[in-house]
Design brief:
Length: about 140
């Protein structure tokens, strides 16, 4: 199922951006202080252009912002976007906990004791051979 970003307030884009380990690492690094894209690129075994694309995905999701300072572009983590992700996950958790609690309540409700199936004469005939007799007692009457 594909959800349009307009319908979910940009959460699809946000979680897509968070789905990549490199992008999550960029967020962690930038959370400690603004870093230039060139400084970030030096930390990864990929091209400058590839790191720049990762930063662009994070920026479109609102997770980072870029600010030009001289010849460098500094990347800064945006905590409000992370808070939106946290709220969305908290809402999902509450929804599922409620469902699990309702299912648990239904399962623990006392249900009427099921009655054993009726055992007519045919049952007795079919299961006669399975009834073992104790040889010490002799035949039953």
């Amino acid at each position: 199922m594909v959800v349009d970003d307009a319908d979910d307030g940009g959460l699809s884009r946000l979680f897509h951006a968070l789905s990549d380990p490199t992008r999550r690492d960029v967020l962690r690094r930038c959370a400690h202080g603004d870093l230039s894209v060139s400084r970030l690129a030096a930390e990864y075994p990929m091209s400058f252009a590839a790191v720049q694309k990762h930063v662009t995905v994070l920026e479109r999701a609102g997770l980072v912002s870029k600010q030009r300072r001289g010849r460098e572009q500094l990347v800064r983590t945006e905590p409000d976007a992370l808070a939106r992700a946290r709220r969305a996950l908290d809402e999902l958790e509450a929804l599922w906990r409620g469902r699990v609690e309702r299912m648990s309540a239904l399962l623990t409700q006392e249900s009427p004791t099921p009655r054993p199936p009726a055992r007519g004469p045919r049952y007795a005939e079919e299961h006669e051979h399975t009834q073992e007799q104790d040889p010490r007692k002799g035949p039953e009457q």
